[in-house]
Amino acid sequence: MKRIISTSKAPAAIGPYSQAVEINGTLYISGQIPIDPITGKLVDGDIRIQTEQVFRNIEAILSEAGYSFSDVIKSICLLRDMSDFKTMNEVYSLHYSEDHPARVAFAVKELPLGAMIEIETIAAK
Fold it and tell me: pTM of the predicted model, to two decimals?
C-alpha cells in the first residue's frame, strides 16, 4: 500500500509532487533543495551551508516516515557546479560514515530557485 509522507519540518513541495512516498518498505524522497522550511526561502550561503540544509530536510522526512540515515540505500546528488563536489562530499560523509548508500553525483545546468544542490534519496527497511 502506498503512503504519502508529509512534514512541516521540511519544505513544502513547490510543485505537484509529494515530499516522499513509501511503498512496500521503500521510501522515495523527492529531490530536496536548500529551502528553509520555516521561511520557505532558499538559504543564503555557499555549497556547505546549502548542503547542510538539504540534509536537515532529508532527515526531517526520513524521521517523519520512521526511517533514518542508516536506512538510505541510494542518493542522487545534483550539483550546479562540479567544483562543489569536494565540499558537498565532506558534508555528505557526516551523514553516511559507514555502510554507505549507492550514489550518483553529476552537474546539471540549473536547479530550482537557483539552488546549488539537490539530493534525491531512497531508503528501505
Answer: 0.96
